[in-house]
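Q: I have 123 residues here and want to know how they pack in 3D. Can you give me a structure?
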Amino acid sequence: QVVLVESGGGLVQAGGSLRLSCAASQRTLNMGWFRQAPGKEREFVALSWRRGSYSYYADSVKGRFTISRDNARNTVYLQMSSMEPEDTAVYYCAADDRLILSQIYERDAYDYWGQGTQVTVSS
């Protein structure tokens, strides 16, 4: 069983930056991030595919967010820049060892989830 522990959430002004971290209790092949804003469904944000061989992003965050990972620490990061109030959400780390590209945007495709960390962007 993989345990994911997130950190780095908080309050930031529009245009500012935050860096989220997610540490896994053991090695995982695919690690990424989802977010859920109040009253909305949980949505895909970014994925580090196969221990960092490639990265995928939601259209809403391309050019502003960067995903990376440190495989020695079993940790994935999400660097968020040029943040907007629309980025306000609970951000969840997700991981899975059996994933195909057609499934990466689907919440149910991931077996392991972190507890979530709140990110609030003020105007």
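Q: Anything worth noting?
A: The CA atoms of residues 65 and 80 lie 4 Å apart. The mean pLDDT is 97.
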